[in-house]
Amino acid sequence: MRCNLVLLLALLVFPALAAEDLLQFESAEQQQLYRQLTAELRCPKCQNQNIADSDAVVAVDMRNKTLELVRQGQSHDQVIDFMKQRYGDFVHYQPPFQLSTILLWLLPVLAVLSLAWTVFRRSKDSQTEEGEPVATSDNLTALDAELQAMIDAASQKPKE
Amino acid sequence: MRKALFYVPLAAFLALSLFLLSGLFSDPRDHGSALIEKPLPAFSLPDLQQPERMITAADLKGEVTLLNVWGLWCPTCNAELSFLTELRQQGVRIVGLYYVQPVDAAFGDSFDIKALRHDVEQKLAEQGDPYLFNIVDEKRSLIFDLGVTGAPEAFLIDRNGVIRHHHVGDINPQNWPQLQQRYQQLQEGDPDAL
Prior knowledge:
The complex is a heterodimer of chains A (160) and B (194). With 160 residues, chain A is mainly alpha-helical. Chain A has 2 domains: 2-94, Cytochrome C biogenesis protein (Helicase, Ruva Protein, domain 3, Orthogonal Bundle), CATH 1.10.8; 100-159, no CATH class. Chain A contains 6 helices and no strands. Chain A has helices at 2-19, 28-40, 57-71, 76-87, 102-128, 140-156. Chain B contains 6 helices and 7 strands. Classes of the chains: A mainly alpha (160), B alpha/beta (194). At the A-B interface, helix 3 and helix 4 of A face loops of B.
């Protein structure tokens, strides 16, 4: 029984060893760039995974290509362009600003602006709205007089 | 003005509902292709039947061609072989682009084109052979340049070697009429093609 358990534990260890990819980079910057790119590039086969996260054949090929291009010293934008030329805008998580994506970029701005406008209008409306009396320096004396009259009336009542 | 504002949230809700509803009927695999209206990328890859013969983009020019990406490992590709064979009998020029899956050297595997040729010949003898010839893309280089995400996928290529359509998924009697229309347009010499 104990022997089986040891064997079972040994099996658990091996996949961890096999999954470790040892990639060699010339510099820490290249390593950083590779990490950034594989996180930003989207696997075209999967519905929502970056290529660092996916083991689809196309994602593995894209990782290898990214590694090759990074080692050649290509910049972040050059690698993204290389992938976009083949797999389209879908491949990058950051959508470009163009006619087909204009709503995507403008809707949040429009929503914030229209909400701000509504809030502004409302606060302005409630200030100018009639019906609810508002104390201002003009009618303050009149209000005071009214209040005094009410106090007088109330204090006279118990005597009756 | 105030009344109109009252309906804004309702209108926004309806618009969002319609947008999400339309999403239910869209194909999540369809995200366009970056290569439409672009010439075939340059390549030089061996013919499966005669590995010493190298096929280049020039070999696909001259006639409208359906370039079909497939592999024996892919069940859908095997299922569409018989329908594609029918299309070949109808005169459609179909060229295969064989998708070789990565071999894991850690398991002592290596790529053997002879074994592959034998397996492919056997399969095509059973199911029908739709292919004029097969291009073997061992490193998936052309497959990568074409923006192929998996198999089966197909490309319609016009006489001048320009990619005119990218089809993701299998070709079957249901979706062929649409593709056929494009194929015939190209064959009749669509003015845009020249």
